Amino acid sequence: MKNNFYKIAFQTRNRLLYLLYLLLPMVSHSQSEKKHIYDGNKNYETKKYSEAEKEYRQALIKNKDSYKANFNLGDAYYKQEKYEEAAEQFQILTHKATSKDTLAKAYHNLGNALVKTKKYKESVEAYKNALKNNPTDEDTRYNLAYAQQMLKQEEQKNKDNKDDKKEEDKKDDKKENDKKDNKDKKEDKNEKQEQPKNQISKEDAQRLLDALQNDERKLQENKKAQKVKGQKVEIDKDW
Predict the structure, then answer these.
(1) How far apart are CA 174 and CA 186, in angstroms?
(2) In terms of DSSP H, where are the helices of the chain?
């Protein structure tokens, strides 16, 4: 009986040691992740954002699904003016948030990063989504109003640019038409210059032609008369 007791105790101890052996890497892994996040936060607070980024990346190597490490990495990007990377990071987090509060914060920071890249339309949508999850956030409400104002100015500027382009196109068309008109006028002028200066009407031309024909006929008749007058007349010989 005593031997069986020791045997069971020994087996139980071995099982516990085995479970502890399996859990130790997990515990160590978790502690390492938290240590990197902690060190990253210390660097962030002292404005060493590049160092903070490195620590958050190390935390993600230990646990790629760590929401804190991912969120803080987005903040570190933002502080380094890596706004495209920050926006991408917070966009991913909007699909991983575990509560309305964390989702609102992810959308809020996404809106901030989008404003910095002048994507005002997208930032307005991000702030609206943030307010859907946290309607009492006055910072988000203020940022939404700012983004809407910037979007309005951008749309007005684009409209003005389109109007200016249309006006420029009209001016260019007018210049082109004026050039064409001037060219046509110049060609007409050249054609007029190439025409004879002393033009006569069709009737005058016909009268002139008739007169020339009459003169020609008279000339021929005179030549014929002169030829007859000076010609030797042959007579019959008288033998």
Answers:
(1) 18
(2) 2-45, 49-62, 67-79, 83-93, 100-116, 120-133, 138-194, 202-229
The pair of structure tokens assigned to 216 is: 């020609």
CA distance 140 to 109: 9
What is the rounded distance in angstroms from the CA atom of residue 129 to the CA atom of residue 105? 10
pTM: 0.59
Q: What is the DSSP string of 19-86?
A: HHHHHHHHHHHHHHHHHHHHHHHHHHHTT-HHHHHHHHHHHHHH-TT-HHHHHHHHHHHHHTT-HHHH
Question: Which CA distances in Å does 224 have to 5, 132, 210, 214, 218?
Answer: 171, 123, 21, 15, 10
Sequence-distant (≥ 6) Cβ neighbours of residue 104 within 8 angstroms = 130, 131, 133, 134, 137, 140
The domain defined by 100-170 carries CATH number 1.25.40.10? yes
Long-range contacts of 77-83 (CB under 8 A, 24+ apart): 77/53, 77/113, 78/109, 78/112, 78/113, 78/116, 79/44, 79/47, 79/49, 80/49, 80/50, 80/53, 81/116, 83/113, 83/116, 83/117
Exposure on the CB side of residue 82, measured as CA atoms within 13 A: 14
Return the domain boundaries, the chain: 31-80, 100-170
Q: Are 40 and 76 in contact (CB under 8 A)?
A: yes
- pLDDT by residue (tens digit) across 97-138? 989 999 999 999 999 999 999 999 999 999 999 999 999 999
